[in-house]
Amino acid sequence: MSECKLSYAELLQIVKVFEASSEFSELHLKYGDAEVDLRKHGAAPASVPLGRKAPEKADAASSAPASPPESAIAFPPGAWVVKSPMVGIFYCAPEPGATPFVKVGQRTAADTTVCIIEVMKLMNSIQAGSSGAVTHVLVKDGEAVEFGQALVVIDPNA
User: Fold this and answer.
1) Which of 24, 59, 71, 129 has its CA 20 to 30 A from that of 32?
2) What's this model's pTM, rounded to 2 decimal places?
3) Which one, of 53, 125, 110, lies nearest residue 80 by Cα?
4) Of 63, 61, 66, 113, which Cα lies nearest the Cα of 90?
5) 38 near 18, Cβ under 8 Å?
6) Would you identify the CATH topology of the domain 56-155?
7) Are 62 and 77 in contact (CB under 8 A)?
8) So what's the pLDDT on residue 41?
9) Are 108 and 114 in contact (CB under 8 A)?
10) Would you list the domain boundaries of the chain?
11) For the segment 40-76, what is each residue's pLDDT rounded down to a tens digit?
12) SS (H, E, C) the chain
């Protein structure tokens, strides 16, 4: 039976992702014998459901990430927005220096991998969920992302 141990580097990565997230004000993690409780200063205890959120169609209220402002990005009508199903680190390519999974203007199929989200050294492939042409890649390589954050925009009519 293997031991579940949390390294110092892994703990620092968890703290970094937690601090970068505006979705969570509190975190309780139990991993093996280690237990970690994090709460942002001044935050009231909150209950946030966990789970994988499927990509959604764009709408005026939720189609753009917090930065840049919504008004700065013009999505095509009926755009498909691929959102992050988890908190983690966004990678646009399978390894440093490799060709990105997708680029603006590239055609995708529903099962095309558009990025990887890393969570505690686990690499999670994120699929497009729709066929069409990529119109926006909204996150920079190596950037922390939040649950539900818009990552890639696809125009299914292109």
Assistant:
1) 24
2) 0.56
3) 110
4) 113
5) yes
6) OB fold (Dihydrolipoamide Acetyltransferase, E2P) (2.40.50)
7) no
8) 63
9) yes
10) 1-48, 56-155
11) 765 444 333 333 333 344 443 333 334 444 445 677 7
12) CCCCCCCHHHHHHHHHHHHHCCCCCEEEEEECCEEEEEECCCCCCCCCCCCCCCCEECCCCCCCCCCCCHHHCCCCCCCEEEECCCCEEEECCCCCCCCCCCCCCCEECCCCEEEEEEECCEEEEEECCCCEEEEEECCCCCCEECCCCEEEEEECCC
Say how far apart CA 78 and CA 59 lie, in whole Å: 8
Output the average pLDDT for the chain.
Answer: 77
Cα 88 from Cα 14, distance rounded (Å): 9
Q: What is the pLDDT of residues 107-122, one digit of tens each?
A: 999 999 999 999 988 8
Is residue 130 within 8 Å of residue 110, measured between CB atoms? yes
Residue the block writes with tokens 């764009």:
58
